[in-house]
Automatic annotation (TrEMBL):
InterPro entries the record matches: DUF1858, DUF2249, ScdA-like_N_sf, TusA-like_sf
Identification of the protein by name: Uncharacterized protein DUF1858
Ranges where the DUF2249 domain occurs: 98-159, 201-263
Residues in DUF1858 domain copies: 3-63
Classification via SUPFAM superfamilies: SirA-like (SSF64307), SP0561-like (SSF140683)
């Protein structure tokens, strides 16, 4: 199999899951998270090699070299270039709309509505230049399903992600529907009472993406089916919930007075 820095982790695992995980754990202990089936089957769909290296603190070249040792063919670096649209010029057709969400995140606020409003206001000739302190993996996954291409650059501790409409991109159902994110099962207070002696609690409000998703998945994998997970979250994790429902989990939510969200995740 030929791979590049943009190859999804899920594609590597399809070829030889055990060999890939073994090789990556030897390369960097942070990849041991791939041993977690729930985390592996959820996050690996969204993350490519480049994103995984950014998350694990691993050099992309070292990752690709490790894959060579177990039979993968790495595309020549001369052709494995990062795709960036041209810079705006007065004579050109393409223009950047820049959106820096670092100040919003610094205030512990969620910029997702502003991002979506901005990108939906663009014409097909425009490119959104998004500046953030981390790579926006769930956003990339969602917009890819809406027909947007992207590229990512890291500069001085920030991630610059370019989004533009790709007429050749196939659209999918990457945006969660209301039925996927609507609370199912018992109400919040009833669940809290039912699981009061079997309730594990975690607080992900101050973690940067995708760490909240990782922490939730790691805890669920460790828990017996008769326990529930209470999560202090800063928002509803809309891109995680459909994956949890696929695996038999239900959830209930409780908005807080400060605009954040409490969740109970459980198996009925």
């Amino acid at each position: 199999m030929v791979i590049t820095r943009k190859t999804p982790i899920a594609e590597l695992l399809k070829v030889d899951k055990d060999a890939v995980i073994r090789q990556l754990v030897e390369l960097n202990p942070n990849f041991a998270r791939l041993k977690n089936p729930l985390l592996r089957n959820t996050l690996a769909r969204m993350v490519n090699i480049e994103s995984a290296c950014n998350m694990a603190g691993c050099e992309i070249a070292a990752f690709l070299d490790a894959m060579k040792h177990i039979g993968f063919v790495v595309q020549d670096q001369a052709t494995d270039t990062v795709q960036i649209r041209p810079q705006a010029t007065s004579a050109g057709r393409l223009f950047h709309r820049e959106l820096d969400v670092r100040p919003i995140l610094a205030q512990k606020e969620d910029p997702i509505k502003l991002i979506l409003q901005t990108i939906h206001s663009l014409s097909d000739e425009h490119t959104l230049k998004l500046i953030a302190p981390f790579e926006p993996i769930p956003l990339i996954h969602m917009l890819s399903g809406k027909g947007y291409a992207h590229s990512v650059q890291q500069e001085e501790g920030s991630f610059i992600t370019y989004f533009w409409k790709d007429p050749n991109a196939a659209k999918s159902q990457a945006t969660p529907s209301d039925t996927q994110t609507k609370p199912r099962g018992a109400d919040f207070e009833s669940l809290a009472l039912k699981y009061k002696d079997r309730l594990r609690t975690i607080d992900v409000r101050n973690l940067e993406m995708p760490q909240p998703m990782i922490m939730i998945l790691e805890n669920l994998q460790q828990m017996p089916d008769d326990e529930a997970l209470f999560v202090y979250h800063k928002k509803l994790p809309v891109y995680l919930l459909p994956h949890l429902q696929e695996r038999g989990y239900e959830h209930s939510t409780q908005p807080t007075e400060d605009g954040k969200m409490n969740l109970i995740i459980y198996k009925p």
